[in-house]
Structure prediction request, 483 residues.
Amino acid sequence: MTPSTAPGGGPGSAERSAAWELLLPAASAPARARGRALQAALRDAVRSGRLAQGTRLPSSRDLAADLGVSRGLVTEAYEQLTAEGYLRSGRGAGTWVGDAVRATRPPARDLAPRSPGARVDFVAGSPDLSLFPRPAWAAAQRSVLTELPHDHLGYPDPRGLPRLRTALAELLTRRRGVVADPERIVVVSGVAQASALLGGVLHARGTHTVGVEDPGSPQHTALYASAGVGTVPLPLDEEGLAVGPLRASGVRAVVTTPAHQFPTGIAYSARRRTELLDWARSVDGLVLEDDYDGDFRYDRAPVGALQGLDAEHVAYTGSVSKSLAPGLRLGWLLVPESLMDEVVERKRTTDLGHPALDQAVFARFLEHGDYDRQLRLCQRAYRERRDALVAALEEHFPGSRVSGIAAGLHAIAALPARYDPEERFLAAVAEAGVSVRPLTAYGHAGGGEGPGVRLVLGYAHLAPARIREGVRLMAGAVRPGGR
Ligand SMILES: Cc1ncc(COP(=O)(O)O)c(C=O)c1O
Prediction:
């Protein structure tokens, strides 16, 4: 006897017969306990998912015959479990597994990082997810699903679909001044994967330490550590990563964010870029360029990527995490020729290539100008928000110095000394429901200019009114006399 499945799904046939086998031990229980054992076994089968919601049960006559028990026992078991909500029955429609199990099985937990429920959260680095271009993305998805040849659904080139690499090469050359040969692009699941791949390749080559900016992104340290590569924090000066300490450190690879240093917002000077590349050549080393928010420039000409000046000593990476949405997990990595084979092999053995459909959709999105449109839209929105933040800080925290505002999705506000000490300030604003992080949270050198409250304020994800509210709440929290 093979149980059938009601519309709405059910387990595969092997699982289904296994589910009935689960009932056999109950059938051979001592006669007195047999009825209860049958009910318990049936209940367990539903709870554990062996009998999935919607599975139609055999008639009581068939099941009784299969199990070698009396039909009355089966009827009783069906009635009891129906009363408990595990089974459902309809006149003439038989008996099937109900949905009570949903209530008994705990839902999967969600470990995605979320904002902590503050009234206003100035977390740095998040774009406005409500600006995600759903209609254009949906159109791209539809057209890709309609047009994509079947064989494009096989394992993709581990570097990425040629169509996407071609479109990315055009984009990155045009917008970021990158030397972008499509043959040297690897499509990855974000800067995070690019870092893990590079870290793995460096480690395999005997490089067990890389330099990182201090203050800098905690992600860099964590990602390289996951590849077994340690990090040496290196200080910045007003032009970017300080080259003296870099030379003295003895590292031969360094992770940088030259277009808009994270988190200080410094744009590396032309001189510093040259010095950095001179260093890389002199030690036959590598600069790892994280162009995480290089797309957003407000009042100055775009600063081209460092990679455009020396593609053999710079590995360049970026993603759509700031321009579209981090949840897409889509980015790119351009590597010097000397590392290409090892990076591609590592990408291949990591996941056999990036999801083909996502790549094709993004390629179409780029080809039709949708990405450029999205960048223009965000650029306008984020500039307005940046202006709202600067104005609100001027109004509520007069005397503050706001920096790093020419680009990116966040700014640094150095507050006047009257707001010291930092711990007291942070406790008071947290109490008022505002979540902010101090620069000191991003590294040892975060307090380099002496004491003072310096805040890293992400603004792109907040509407101007929320930005004003957040700054007003902060000011109210630290004003003598409180809110
Ligand atoms: C400076 C910096 N680079 C890269 C990343 C990770 O980016 P992706 O989403 O592209 O992996 C982050 C995310 O927190 C970041 O802060």
User: Anything to note?
Assistant: The CA atoms of residues 23 and 42 lie 7 Å apart.
